[in-house]
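Researcher: Go.
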Amino acid sequence: MSKLTTNCTPADSLTASPKKDAKSDPIVTRLNRAQGQLTGVVGMYEEGRNCVEIVQQILAVRNALGSAARVMLSTEATRCSRERKVEELDAVIKELLRA
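Model: Structure:
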């Protein structure tokens, strides 16, 4: 089984226009959202909030990270396809199917 070993390409670097800033990158946006949610979870735990509410927020963080991973792998698959790197594309597709 192939293992994905390529570096991640910022999502907006696949377009014709150069990257302006990290705020326009959908992966960075998703990761920042997850980071904010996780900070909130830590605060909830430290405040002694309801266990069910904390677990719901943990699941939201997990979903946000999963979304970032899917976008990242999809972006990488697009790059591999455009550059005709068949073996790398195969590895990315396998990772997408596992995600």
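Model: Helices lie at 26-47, 51-82, 86-98.
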